[in-house]
Design brief:
alpha/beta; Rossmann fold; 4 domains; 4-stranded antiparallel beta sheet; ATP hydrolysis activity; transport
Length: 834
């Protein structure tokens, strides 16, 4: 049932498991012993298809854990070191939830549940919340959950911890009967008595390797020599010496007892007993002297050699980890590998079995979604503020709207009062959305911190099913509250005659709130995968609040002025960010990341060293070999961000070109206004006078602007950098459109005012901003083989190189802007002013 060959697991630089070879046959119980940190939990997680082996292969219940992980999880019952229970559920709901995930029909579920409820003592508490259970009851409930779908393979980690002696005995009987019915059981425990009582074989794991494997008796004989028997007599022991066989290996004796080793107890003991009784010496007892398995265990961990040189080189079933020509160091039996290959050949992409169907996928996702929604609705800490916001805030917004309308009406500014209505609607809907950050952090990183997520990860669900189920559950409650609050507010305004339905504004409101909810939930999920605790996740979540707040201010302004076309562009950018965050969440929310993610520590010296190496040699996967690579490679790595900025800039220019004010200018008017604006007169310019700017001042201004935009872009996860070209190019488009509409001659003058230095300044700025956008988006991109710190360091090094590339272009553009551009523009305008 379980065949593992050469299993190895490395977490970045830490080797957790090294060359584990293991076999558990049907109907067999194998105990995996080892000290803390030996690699037991990691080994079990690899066998349960929760972690992918770095090397080696494991076949569980006929399926390869790499190729068909979902089918493996469907056929494995896992009980981790912590029970991992949902405390707001009742015992009945908890068992039914997992029976549903494992597709156990309800009649069979009830039959299996009834078979064990009384024996485990859970019937009376079955309908109580799990939070009220004792530790022993929780452990028994978790054990029953692992047995519920009758898996061919059972992986148990300390199954009887926290149980009272009677319950522990019942649990052992349950495990033993499970194995006797043909199932394979792998038992991880520190309880050596339990291991000896249950296990057919014992494997001792130390420092990631199985050091020795065999039956308890075989291990004793290997490390402690043949068994020792004690013969206790009713008289003096001297009378029995002559009756004992010559050469009997006596290890100790007393006034009326003798202890000896028996190489073959079944043959030697009857002869000894018959010889003593033939001499008429009364025998009280003949029994094996107990030898604790703990002695063997400690001897193996210390690396001590076998304790008796006359010990058998390996009793029945005893196998050392190295040098064994059989399974432990050799190849696996051919049949499980062949069977796994046959099964894998019938699997589709991503390890899906041929029996996979859409209904099963939806059913599993729906089960996770429904459980999380019910759990959220039961949490009064979340529902109380949502209910208050839903019931009270629409009314407060309505009263505020009426008060503001009455106030501005006194000054004849009814339009301002009308514009305040959508602004208050946006505020009404946004406040419930703040819970969008709390719920994902609680349901994702909270479960990880409480260790309740591992049983769910062990279920036969894909990572995408878990992400969608839990993500939608975290999204639906606050989003529904937000949209319902806005709807109530708008309906109140309509009923009171304060507002008439506006389709464009309503769609804009609902789109803004929905996209904000998606961005906040997906961002919170990304944050959750980078945190070990809710406290740390809350700190990281502040990086989501800042850009969302800035966006809310911008969107409120656009709603106030009725700029729906510009708002569409903002929503498109927000939609793109939502896609990026969802993509990042799908990449990060996987069993490997959740169970084995290591988090960087603050190592300034290491960061600076890594930065210098990245700056000097570039990407370690493609090191710099020529000087030209210092320019080519950073540009190539930032090409996607550069293309994004060009597209967004084009959108901004289009908006500015299409949306222009009704202002009419003339060349003569512009020339007359130059002195009042602080510029030299046209005559002075023609005679060689300078503008009040210097090339160095313009260069420093542009450089400062790029650095500040980069820093703000990092804080806002690149969101500010994405909007910057929209605003900049929108302003240019607006200016050119205004000039061309006023007078085509002015339009050409506007082109001359931008083109000479713009052909250098804009590409230089775009290069630096592309590096800044890539830097801001690095935490939102799939991790790949490198750590987040390494990717950030490389992005910083590339940004600095792009800044150095752009510096001479900015200097030259500044000189042209002062000495060339004004002369061209004024010469052009002066031709028509004379």
């Amino acid at each position: 049932m379980i065949y593992a060959e050469g299993l190895r697991k490395v977490f970045e630089t830490t080797v957790a498991v090294e060359e584990v070879n293991l076999e558990v046959r049907p109907g067999e119980i194998v105990a995996l012993l080892g000290p803390n940190g030996a690699g037991k939990t990691t080994t079990v997680r690899m066998l349960a298809a929760l972690l992918r082996p770095t090397a080696g292969r494991a076949i569980v219940a006929g399926y390869d854990t790499r190729e068909s992980p979902q089918e493996v999880r469907r056929r494995v019952g896992l009980l981790g070191e912590l029970p991992g229970l949902y405390l707001r559920m009742t015992g009945e709901e908890y068992l039914a939830f997992f029976a549903d995930l494992y597709e156990v029909p309800r009649p069979i579920f009830r039959q299996r549940r009834e078979a064990w409820l009384d024996r485990l003592g859970l019937r009376e508490v079955l309908h109580q919340r799990i939070a009220a259970y004792s530790k022993g009851m929780r452990q028994k409930l978790a054990l029953l959950r692992a047995f519920l779908h009758q898996p061919p393979v059972l992986l148990l980690d300390e199954p009887t911890s926290a149980m009272d002696p009677e319950s522990a005995q019942i649990a052992r009987e349950m495990i033993r009967s499970f194995a006797e019915s043909g199932h394979a059981v792998l038992l991880c425990t520190h309880n050596l008595f339990e291991a000896e009582a249950l296990a057919d074989r014992i494997a001792i794991l130390h420092r990631g390797r199985i050091r020795v494997e065999g039956s308890p008796q075989a291990l004793r004989e290997r490390f402690m020599g043949p068994p020792i028997y004690e013969l206790r007599l009713a008289g003096p022991v001297e009378e029995a010496w002559s009756a004992l066989p010559p050469g009997l290996p006596v290890v100790a004796h007393g006034p009326d007892w003798i202890r000896y080793r028996a190489q073959d107890p079944e043959r030697e003991n009857p002869r000894i007993l018959a010889a003593v009784m033939a001499r008429g010496i009364p025998v009280i007892s003949l029994a094996e002297v107990p030898r604790p398995l703990e002695t063997v265990y400690l001897q193996i961990l210390r690396g001590e050699p076998p304790g008796d040189p006359r010990a058998s080189p390996g009793g029945e079933g005893a196998r050392p980890a190295e040098g064994n020509p059989g399974h432990a160091a050799g190849a696996l039996p051919a049949h499980p590998i062949a069977e796994a290959n046959r099964r894998d050949a019938t699997a589709g992409p991503h390890g899906r079995a041929a029996g996979w169907d859409l209904w099963r996928w939806i059913h599993g996702t729906w089960g996770v979604f429904r459980r999380d929604v019910v759990d959220i609705l039961r949490d009064w800490r979340l529902m109380t503020p949502l209910a208050l916001l839903l019931l009270i805030f629409p009314l407060l917004s309505m009263f505020s709207a009426e008060a503001a309308t009455r106030y501005v009406a006194q000054f004849g500014a009814q339009l301002i009062g009308e514009r305040l209505l959508p602004f208050l609607a946006l505020a009404t809907g946004f406040l419930p959305l703040t819970v969008c950050l709390v719920i994902p952090l609680e349901t994702f990183v909270g479960e990880k911190e409480r260790r309740t997520i591992e049983p769910l990860l062990a279920a036969p669900l894909s990572d995408l099913q878990l992400y969608i189920g839990k993500g939608l559950a975290a999204l639906v409650v606050p989003t529904a509250t937000s949209l319902l609050g806005v709807t109530i507010y708008l309906l109140i305004l309509i009923l009171r005659g304060a507002w008439f339905f506006d389709l464009a504004m309503s769609l804009s409101l609902y789109s803004i709130l929905f996209l904000h909810a998606v961005v906040m939930v997906s961002g919170a999920i990304v944050v959750s995968t980078q945190s070990n605790s809710v406290r740390g996740a809350n700190l990281l979540a502040s990086f989501i609040i800042l850009p969302i707040s800035m966006l809310l201010i911008l969107e409120s302004s656009l709603l106030f002025w009725g700029s729906y076309r510009t708002l569409v562009v903002v929503l498109c950018v927000l939609f793109i960010y939502a896609i990026l965050l969802v993509r990042m969440g799908i990449a990060l929310f996987n069993r490997e990341q959740l169970l084995s993610g290591e988090f960087d520590t603050l190592d300034l010296r290491g960061i600076l060293r890594s930065f210098w190496q990245a700056f000097r040699w570039g990407d370690p996967a493609r090191p710099i070999s020529r000087r030209w690579d210092h320019i080519r490679q950073p540009v190539q790595r930032s090409a996607g961000a550069l293309l994004t900025l060009v597209v967004l800039g084009g959108m901004g220019w289009g908006i500015g070109w299409l949306w222009f004010p009704s202002v009419v200018l003339s060349p003569e008017e512009i020339l007359r206004q130059l002195p009042s604006a602080g510029f030299s007169s046209p005559q002075a310019l023609e005679q060689g006078a300078w503008l009040p700017f210097t090339p160095w001042g313009i260069f420093l201004h542009n450089l400062r602007a790029l650095v500040i935009n980069t820093l703000i872009g990092i804080i806002t996860m690149g969101l500010w950098v994405a909007f910057y070209p929209v605003g900049l190019m929108g302003l240019i488009g607006l200016l050119l459109r205004t000039l061309f509409v006023s007078d085509p001659r002015l339009g050409i003058g506007g082109v001359l005012a931008l083109l000479p230095h713009g052909v250098l300044e804009l590409p230089a700025a775009w290069l630096v901003l592309a590096g800044a956008l890539r830097l801001g988006l690095t935490p939102l991109t799939p991790p790949g083989p490198r750590t987040l710190r390494d990717r950030l360091v490389l992005a910083w090094a590339d940004w600095l190189k792009l800044l150095l590339i752009a510096t001479p272009l900015l200097l030259l553009a500044a000189w042209i802007e002062v000495h060339v551009t004004p002369r061209l523009v004024l010469a052009w305008l002066a031709r028509f002013a004379r």
